[in-house]
Amino acid sequence: MKQSEALDILKMGRNVFLTGPPGSGKTHTVNEYVAYLKSHGVEPAITASTGISATHIGGLTIHSWSGIGIKNSLDKHGLKKIISGYVAKRVKRAKVLIIDEVSMLSGQTFSMVDRVCREIKDTQKPFGGLQVVVVGDFFQLPPIVKKEPTSPAQMDLLAESSGRFSYDALAWKGAKFTVCYLDEQHRQDDRAFLDLLSAIRRNQFSKEHLLQIQARQITSQIAPKTAPKLFSHNVDVDRVNHEILEKLPGEQKIFSMFSDGPEPLVFALKRGCLSPEALSLKIGAQVMFTKNNVKEGFVNGTLGTVQTFAEHTKEPVVKTRDGRILQVRPMDWMVEENGKIRAKVTQFPLRLAWAITVHKSQGMSLDEAVMDLGNVFEFGQGYVALSRVRRFSGLHLLGWNDRAFRVHPDVLEKDADFQEQSIMAQRLLGAIASHDMKKMQEEFIIASGGKIISENATVENAAAKKAKFAPPKPVGAYSVKKIREKHASAYMPWDDAQDAELRALFAKKLSASELADAFNRTKGSIRSRLIKLGLLDE
Predict the structure, then answer these.
(1) Pair 306, 312: CB distance under 8 Å
(2) How far is residue 446's CA from residue 383's CA, in Å, rounded to a whole number?
(3) Do residues 143 and 379 touch, judged by C-beta distance below 8 A?
(4) Are residue 218 and residue 195 in the same domain, yes or no?
(5) Which residues are CB-contacts of 476 (< 8 A; sequence separation ≥ 6)?
(6) 377 and 479 in one domain?
(7) pLDDT at residue number 471
(8) How many other C-beta atoms are found inside a 10 Å radius of the C-beta of residue 389?
(9) Distance in angstroms (rounded) separating the CA atoms of residues 171 and 211
(10) 381, 442: one domain
(11) Per residue in 315-334, is it b (16+ CB within 10 Å) or e — as a string?
């Protein structure tokens, strides 16, 4: 299925399981849908199964959002406590729930979220009648399953003993997901390498594929020094990065993370952020970008080397592998809810890149990597590592074990079913007339409390919105052009780097006039921004 077809189905309000191999555009499709909802006045609840993936998408973990926390069972007392707190307001307000990296969510947890939503919404509809969009690929890392509850009361509440995967849960069956299986490839551009990855997915890894893998085997002595190393365990990553950084000559600079918001949310952001709280760099350090910024020319996984530090700002200047020179500025990782920023951390979107874990590499696209798959202990772990790389020429293997090229047999069987369901959904979509589809999409927006923007009113609405937020004109009306003769940046949008600098200068007790001079803006603009950042009361 194409991304555009999946988007059409999502816009009709169907519960959707969005899946496909790595690089098929799952994240891009979800981002497009989120933007569509927000443009129509609908704020989706954006969550993920892990802290890292939640931080990537600017949301909460599903455990935090639903209030279940670290629970692996749900009794009446626990449920009552959840529905009497802040979580109840959050769930009642929600119309659309997105859960990313669903492959790492157990069936038990999935059912618990369903139960919480139904209880708070006071309806027996699946997930309380929310549109539920689950995203992920079950061939990738599976959930860690804890012991099942043993208390009779706990067992009665869920009325099931869920299997390992979320698709085993009764809640999954009840949601009646429309499967959208994306099959276009946007990461790998090497046909032979793509065929090998596809063979692993189909459990058809052959002797010919093994010969291709063996051709990429190297020893640690000849491993390319500039390629990141993928390890299974954090301790190996930390050791390698620390040892190599210490050997580099020159002064070490440490950049501390700034944070703002409630401590629990800030703590979760810090845990999920791929950039460390204290970023230690030297000239010559090999780094990896940890965030997407297409405008600036980097994505999560772009590699480079620190060339120098800017003279005045001390910001790191990085030369990417393709020769571009980028002065890196701080960026924000945020938790947004109901259109408002609840918490955020600010740090340079970099991390040391001589080594990284397979788990933290999920979502990255790497030009090359050195990996040792000899300690792979879980189905899908080797597949995730291999699929981070774009082509065979960027793959450098130190070793592997028998499990490295195997996928979970249960997932293999289920995946065939998912593909059939997606083909059926594609056919049904094709049978819907365009005007009927548009009507269904508009009805869903209205049912979700959103607003319909007619095509004829688009220009008019944009002009009205611009007028609404324009500053009031005093007697003797002025123009922006005239103001910019004195304040060059007046009414220009603020970016993450400017926000970080404003916070730093405000902390140094600079006056409004001094801040206005520093940013070439009016004092009124400075005051408005300080209020927006929560640094000044209205």
Answers:
(1) no
(2) 42
(3) no
(4) yes
(5) none
(6) no
(7) 46
(8) 27
(9) 43
(10) no
(11) bbbbebeeeeebebbbbbbb
pLDDT of residue 255: 95
- Name 139's Cβ contacts closer than 8 Å, sequence gap at least 6: 21, 103, 201, 380, 383, 407, 408, 411, 415
Asked if residues 104 and 94 have their Cβ atoms less than 8 Å apart, the reply is: no
For residue 67, give the nearest of 82, 56, 52, 53 by alpha carbon: 82
DSSP 455: G
H or E element: which one contains 161?
none
- 361 and 237 in a single domain? The answer is yes
Alpha-carbon distance 254 to 231, whole Å?
A: 25
First-to-last C-alpha distance (Å) of the chain: 50
Question: CA 87, CA 112: separation in Å to the nearest integer?
Answer: 14
Would you call 171 helix, strand, or coil by DSSP? Answer: helix
For residue 442, the domain's CATH number is: 3.40.50
Residue 228 structure tokens: 């990141």
Question: Residue 51's pLDDT is what?
Answer: 74
Same domain, 120 and 22: yes
Residue 538 lies in a domain: no
Q: Based on the domain organization, do 467 and 435 belong to the same domain? A: no
Residue 246, classified by CB atoms within 10 Å of its CB into exposed (0-12), middle (13-18) or buried (19+), is: exposed
Q: Which two tokens stand for residue 312?
A: 């005045």
Question: Can you tell me the distance from the alpha carbon of 102 to that of 404, in angstroms, rounded to the nearest whole number?
Answer: 22
Which tokens in the block code for residue 339? 């259109």
* SS3 per-residue string spanning 149-160: CCCHHHHHHHCC
The pLDDT score that the predictor gives to residue 46 is 92
CB count in 10 Å sphere of residue 123: 12
Asked if 143 and 49 count as a contact pair (C-beta separation under 8 A), the reply is yes
Q: Is the dihedral of CA 387, 389, 395, 400 positive or negative?
A: negative
d(CA 410, CA 429): 29
Closest listed residue to residue 252, CA positions, set 286, 283, 289, 287: 283
- What are the average pLDDT values for consecutive 10-residue runs of the chain, which has 538 residues? 95 96 87 94 90 74 85 79 84 94 90 93 94 93 58 49 80 96 79 90 91 93 87 83 92 93 88 88 92 78 89 91 90 81 92 84 80 84 87 91 87 93 95 93 94 61 45 44 62 73 78 81 83 73
CA–CA distance, 274 with 291 (Å, rounded to integer):
9
Q: 262 and 351 share a domain? A: yes
Query: Largest Cα–Cα distance in the chain?
Result: 82
For residue 148, the 8-state DSSP code is P
Report whether 499 contacts 530 (CB < 8 A): no
Q: What is the pLDDT at residue 311?
A: 86
Print the domain residue range for 473: 458-532
Determine contact, residues 503/344, Cβ cutoff 8 Å: no
45-48 and 60-61 strand pairing? parallel
| Residues linked to residue 491 through DSSP beta bridges, in sequence order | none
Beta bridge partners of 357: 231
Question: Residue 537 domain-assigned?
Answer: no
Rounded to two decimals, the pTM is 0.69
